[in-house]
Amino acid sequence: MAKKFYKSNTHYWLTVLFFVSFTFCVWLNNVQLTTSQISVGKLVQAQTPNADELINKGVESYKAGNFRAAIQSWEAALELYTQKKNYNNVAIANENLARTYQQLGQNEQALNYWEKVNNYYRSQQNWQKVGRILTEIAQAYSNFGQTEKAIIFLCGVDAKNIENLACQQGSALQIALQQQDKTGEIAALGSLGEAYRLRGNYDIAIQYLEAAKKTNNQTYNFAILNSLGNARASRAQLWSLRAKSAQQQSVDKASEFQQKANNDYQQALTYFQSSLKEARQQDNKSGEIRSLLNLIQLFYHSKTIGLIPQNQLDANIQEALELLDRLPDSVNKVYAAIDLANLPTVDEELTSPLTQCFAKPKLANSQAKELLDRAIKVSQRLQDSRSESYALGVLGHFYECQEKNLQLAWELTNKAIWLADQKLKAKDSLYLWEWQAGRILEAQNKNNEALPFYQRAYTTLEQLRNDILIADRDFQFDFRDIIEPVYRQLAQLQLEVASANNTSNKQLSSPNLNAALTTINSLRLAEIQNYFGNDCILSGINNNNVTEVVADNTAFISSIVFKDKTGFILILPNQERRLEWIDKSRETLRKEINNFREGLTRGERDINYNTKDAANLYELIIRPFEEDLNTQKVKTLVFIQDSFLRNVPMAALYDKKDNKYLIEKYAIATTPSLQLTSTQKVNIRSSRALVLAVSQEAKIDNRLFDPLTNVPLEIKILQEQFANTKKLENQEFTVSNLEKEIQNTAYPIIHVATHAQFGTIPEDTFLVTGNNDKLTINQLEKLLRETSNSSNLVELLALTACQTAVGDDRSTLGLAGVALQAGAKSAMASLWSVGDESTANLVAEFYSKLRESKMSKAQALQSAQLKLINAKETVTDIKYNHPYYWAPFIIIGNWL
């Protein structure tokens, strides 16, 4: 991965525990070896001291950061110990090898050694060592991206169940406490803090780290302070993101959230400064440069609040550069040089220096190049292929961006790929260099040669995606810079190559177009998975491709937004494809889309709707496909939308030739990803429904939610439609009551008539419940999935008073994924809250058509929307034909 600003203390916890335990082990070795010499005579005297020398030689190599040399010494010692059946020393050698392979990032090899060590100490009933080894194993899993498994080893509990900090018997922390092993206890606490920080559970992480800090252990103080700084800095980023989301939602909490961010940044600064002081007092040069780098990167993240003066930044950079010269060769030295070489100027907004070209680096090009050259030489002396690959790739990026020497950039990038792929299978950095190779070739207009490298980067990333999107919460902050562009750039190249030799969009079904559809669909999955930060939605994945789910009279329109244009792909019932481009920049189209939505939402005060924006978008998006849609007699359109296009209801596009809205011509649905959509037709004939409702005024996080005066009418409608309707209304609608209700009763339909907010992150996505409380989407998911009833019994989740933020691309990800996250096959939801009698009328018609006819969900909603559009012809309020009242309601997921 791209090096993160706030570096994990994972390796430090391992290193400290290693040296503390190794001191004990060496002393124990000497005692045991003396005993062995007495008992078995001269042969042991001739061989065992050689093994001791090899062990000590390995320790010196390890301390110097020469891990390959350490492995060579310890493997030789292991062979000698094995020959003499000295199993205690065999365990110690295996232990050392496990730690060293872990330092090299070769976690599979590390875990193999740890398993042997763990089995040995258990057989000896050496529980103190067992506890420490469990911590080491947990760290290996954290490095692997499997933080949930790490927490099980450390604490024995599911990482998702974090109501308290109590750990189970047999876990690393509990063993340390029982054995009164303070060293093991601190290591377990610190490792738990790091694992929860990576998962984004910053509050829990800080609690564990604060518990470790109370021990006031001088050996560990530096690591604890550094981890606390990391956790505070990461939480500050989250608060800043929430402040931005609240501002877009016009919520009063924005200033409070930003103040919390500022406080955490200040605490992070204090901890990093203290860790620097501790490192200097201990003459820990490696720790000193780590603290300096954290302070430097803290400046960039907090520069908007002026936390660190620029002259202090410059002083820290100079100190780090001078210290780098005094450091012995080590892998940490390699990465420190890379980080310093990749600093941008103060005024530049940059989140991923390894995937973005910044206008000007902080250091002069000559100085940056010297640092990168040095990093390569150090890694080569260490014979560490992983860091060498990384340094070569970064130097290639330097020539790609700063020197504009694409040939040299290409050569260096290819060397990085070879080392990462052939020698290491290091996929976590491999995709970066494959992607870089594609960019370099594309910059030389070699699109056909670039395409395979983009494809390889995409394939590598797909293999990693599940781990990196749910294991490290910080990737949620950087997703659009270090993950998403791989998908977009590949899809753009695939579409451009597919259409390059076509003068018409007719019969366009090339392999590259099919591949582009697969890439776009994978991007949708990655976005949803990244938004929720967990793997719950993975259970809904099916292996159907687009052609397998195309039904009679149904067409799909998939969109993808690029910097300078936007592609729309039509998939017809006969499986033919059409590709159309809108040649407008991303920002121009975004502005038009936002204007369209704002015009719709003005309907609360404007009786007559100006269809100009709706008609313009119809001409751009629908008109090019109209002939095909008519020829194929399409009746239902399913949109798979991208970015800000998710934020608007396609139903309200207007055909000025026929004087009809799109919904008057087609039933319409949307789905976040076909891979996540059940395509089985389900007739809802059940007489059972659960209604969750709040009609009263509510105040959540100082935000006032208006009363929904027509909710009682909605409830009445549900009771008329479903004889066995259960309602939880106002004060009765609580999390505990909901949990009790669904434990023993299956409800195919759950209808939620309360305010629902969808924000930039899941923490700001919630349903308003009774007693001025809220139910987050993650809580809802947990309730529906962990009850005794199978989640697949929820066929439809209806939410009739939602709110998404205009201009916030991520808020609509929450809306798109709500049914998936809650385990429902589909959802009927609204893009904005109408709060009017019209909603009750629409709901009545929707359920009536759904239950009494063979209509699909999309067709039932279409019928309900048409009833409001034709309001002038009925006794219904004539204002309801304005799209403000009917357009926000959409079907998400299974439309059948």
Written overview of the protein:
The chain is α/β, with parallel strands linked by helices and 896 residues long. 59% of the residues lie in helices and 10% in strands. The chain contains 34 helices and 17 strands. Strands 8, 11, 12, 13, 14, 15, 16 and 17 form an eight-stranded mixed sheet that branches. A five-stranded mixed sheet has the order 3-2-1-4-7. Helix 12 packs antiparallel against helix 13. The chain starts with 9 loop residues before the first helix and ends with a strand. The N terminus is likely disordered.
Features:
896 residues; 34 helices; 59% helix; globular
Overall SS class: alpha/beta
Task: Please mark out the parts with pLDDT under 50 across 5 or more consecutive residues, or reply none.
Answer: 1-48
Percent helix among the residues?
A: 55-70%
SS strand fraction = 5-15%
Count of extended strands: 17
Tell me about the largest β-sheet: 8 strands, mixed
Q: Estimate the global geometry from the Cα principal axes.
A: globular
Radius of gyration: 30 Å
End-to-end separation in angstroms reads 41 Å
- Helical segment tally? 34
